[in-house]
Design brief:
Length: 520
C-alpha cells in the first residue's frame, strides 16, 4: 500500500507555507516597500543554501475524512543558510500574518532559534518585524477564551538561551519594521543591531499604549525611529534600504569566527602593504594644543585600506569603536574623537567602550587603542550621569580582558580614565605629540597656581603665561628614556609597527583559544 496520500499532504502543507499570509498580504508588504521574510532570507543567503527548520509547523484544518482543507503556517521562518560560504542560523517573523505577533507555532520556532544556533555553534541572524504578544493571547476570537502565552512554571526561561547564545556565537539583529515586546528585547540582546531609516522602529510599547499610560502623543518614528536609537545606543547602525542592510550584516560577520572556539578568519585578498607609511601622519596632530584633528583619518591610514567598519557612531560620540583589519587579520579599533568633549570619557562613551571591549574579548579580536584621553568628563551633568561608575566599569572590562592590546598614545593620557585604554600587558607606543599626567595642563595650572593667578593684575594673562611656560618644558622623550612606554615612534610608522606587533601577538592568542577548546 502506497504512502502517496500522506506525501501529497506534505506537499500541500509545504506549498501553503511558502505562500506565507497569502497573496494579498504579500502585496501589502511590498506596497510598503518591504520584503517578506522569505525574500529577506534569500537576499542575505548564498543561492539555494537555505534549509528550513519546521517548515510544516502551523495549524491544519481537516474535513471529516481527514483531508486537508486549509493550512496556516507558523509565522516565524527559521533555518540554516550559508552567508559568503559560511553556515549560519537565520530566522524572522512573518509580518504577513498577524503583523508578526506570534502564533503558537511561530513562538515555539522563534524560541528554538537560539537553541539551534547553540547546538551547531553557528552565528545567529534575526530579522525582526513584529509587535510581540497580543492582548488576547493566542485565542480570544468570538466566544473563545484567551489562551495565555506565558511559560509553564517548570520550564526554562526563554531568556536563558538568549543569554547563552551571546556568550558563544555572533548574534546579529535587524529591525525591518516596527519592533516591540520580545522582538525588541531580542534586538537589544545582540552583538550588532541595525535598522532601516524611516521603515524601522524599536519600541518598548507602541504609541497607543504610551498615550494610554503617559498621555504622550507620539508617532512610532518619534518614539523609536533611527534618529532616537542611534543616539540612545539601542541600535549600532542604520541604513537607507534593506539591500544596504544585507551588505552591512555580511560585512560585520566577515570579521568574526563562527563561534568562540574558533579564531577570526583572515581576509582572502590581502593587497595592502604592511609597510605602507602615509606621509600626512607626520603633521596630523596640530602643535596648537587646543586645535582638533580627524581621528578617523588616522584610523583609515593605519588599518588595511577600506577595512574600517564603524559601529555605534552616534552614541557616546567622544569614543570611536569599530572593526578593521591589519595585514588581513581582524582587530577591534577603539579611539577618542576630539571633536566631542575633547575626547573625554562620558557616561555614554564609557558604556559604549565597555560593551565593545567585552565583545572583542568574546570573539578573540586583538584591540588597537588610539589614545587621546583628557580624562572623565567633568561638571554637574557628568556627575548626575554617574560617569565615574560607568568609567570604572570600563576600566574593569579592560583589565579583565584576555586579548592582546596595542595602545598608541597620539596626544593626551590624563587622569583615571586613561587606565581604560591599556589592557593587561599592553604594548604601548607613543607619538612625539603624546602628553601624560594626572591632570591636563589647563586644569593642573588652575589648581597648583591658584593664588599666584588670583594675585596677578591680569589673572587670565598670568594663567596663559604659566601654561605656555610649562608646556614648553614638555618633551616627548622622557617617558621613552624612563621605559614608561615600549617605544616612541614616527607617526608614519604606526601601521608597520602594529602589523609587526600583531604577527607576534596573534599566534599566542591562537594557542590560548585552541588550548581552551581542547581543555573543554
Amino acid at each position: 500500500m502506497s504512502w502517496e496520500t500522506e506525501v501529497q499532504g506534505i506537499q500541500a502543507r509545504q506549498k501553503a507555507a511558502q505562500e506565507l499570509g497569502g497573496e494579498e498580504a504579500i502585496q501589502r508588504q511590498h506596497g510598503h516597500g518591504r520584503l517578506t521574510i522569505r525574500e529577506r532570507i534569500d537576499e542575505l543567503s548564498d543561492s539555494q543554501s537555505f534549509r528550513e527548520e519546521g517548515p510544516m509547523a502551523g495549524y491544519g484544518e481537516l474535513d471529516e475524512e481527514g483531508a486537508l482543507i486549509k493550512f496556516t503556517p507558523g509565522n516565524y521562518i527559521l533555518g540554516t543558510a550559508h552567508i559568503d560560504g559560511r553556515p549560519c542560523v537565520v530566522g524572522g517573523e512573518d509580518f504577513t500574518q498577524r503583523g508578526g505577533s506570534p502564533t503558537p507555532a511561530g513562538l515555539r520556532k522563534s524560541v528554538y532559534a537560539e537553541d539551534l544556533s547553540l547546538r551547531y555553534r553557528l552565528p545567529l541572524i534575526r530579522f525582526l518585524e513584529g509587535g510581540g504578544g497580543s492582548v488576547v493571547g493566542t485565542g480570544g476570537k468570538g466566544n473563545r477564551p484567551s489562551q495565555p502565552m506565558g511559560d509553564p512554571v517548570f520550564s526554562r526561561s526563554r531568556f536563558k538561551s538568549i543569554a547563552d547564545v551571546l556568550q558563544n556565537v555572533p548574534v546579529v539583529s535587524a529591525a525591518m519594521g516596527a519592533v516591540a515586546g520580545l522582538p525588541a528585547a531580542r534586538l537589544a540582546a545582540s552583538h550588532f543591531s541595525i535598522m532601516v531609516r524611516g521603515q524601522s522602529q524599536v519600541l518598548v510599547a507602541g504609541p497607543a499604549v504610551v498615550e494610554r499610560a503617559t498621555g504622550e502623543k507620539l508617532t512610532k518614528e518619534e518614539l523609536g525611529g533611527a534618529a532616537v536609537h542611534l543616539k540612545s545606543g539601542v541600535v549600532d547602525n542604520a541604513v537607507e534600504t534593506e539591500a544596504e542592510l544585507m551588505q552591512e550584516v555580511r560585512r560585520f560577520l566577515s570579521y568574526l569566527p563562527r563561534n568562540t572556539r574558533e579564531m577570526p578568519p583572515r581576509a582572502e585578498d590581502v593587497n595592502d602593504d604592511p609597510q605602507r607609511a602615509d606621509e600626512f601622519l607626520i603633521d596630523v596632530i596640530p602643535r596648537e594644543r587646543r586645535k582638533v584633528y580627524k581621528m578617523r583619518k588616522i584610523i583609515e591610514a593605519v588599518v588595511d585600506q577600506g577595512s574600517f567598519f564603524e559601529m555605534t557612531r552616534y552614541y557616546g560620540r567622544s569614543q570611536i569603536t569599530g572593526l578593521a583589519r591589519l595585514n588581513g587579520w581582524p582587530v577591534g579599533i577603539w579611539a577618542n574623537d576630539p571633536h566631542f568633549y575633547a575626547g573625554s570619557m562620558t557616561a555614554d562613551g564609557a558604556q559604549k567602550a565597555r560593551r565593545f571591549i567585552q565583545f572583542c574579548d568574546t570573539f578573540h579580536l586583538p584591540i588597537i587603542a588610539l589614545v587621546d584621553e583628557p580624562g572623565f568628563m567633568i561638571g554637574s551633568a557628568s556627575e548626575k550621569a554617574a560617569t565615574i561608575r560607568y568609567g570604572v566599569d570600563t576600566i574593569c572590562a579592560t583589565v579583565n580582558s584576555c586579548v592582546p592590546w596595542a595602545s598608541v598614545i597620539v596626544r593626551k593620557t590624563f587622569g583615571v580614565a586613561a587606565a581604560a585604554h591599556f589592557g593587561p600587558q599592553a604594548e604601548v607606543y607613543a607619538w612625539p605629540s603624546a602628553e601624560a599626567g594626572t591632570l591636563p595642563l589647563e586644569g593642573g595650572v588652575a589648581v597648583a597656581f591658584r593664588k599666584e593667578i588670583e594675585a596677578a593684575p591680569d589673572p587670565e594673562a598670568k594663567r596663559r603665561e604659566i601654561e605656555e611656560k610649562l608646556a614648553s618644558r614638555r618633551n616627548p622623550y622622557a617617558r621613552a628614556e624612563a621605559f614608561g612606554i615600549h617605544d616612541l615612534i614616527d607617526p608614519r610608522q604606526t601601521r608597520s609597527t602594529l602589523c609587526e606587533w600583531l604577527e607576534l601577538a596573534r599566534p599566542v592568542l591562537e594557542e590560548n583559544v585552541l588550548g581552551q577548546r581542547r581543555d573543554s
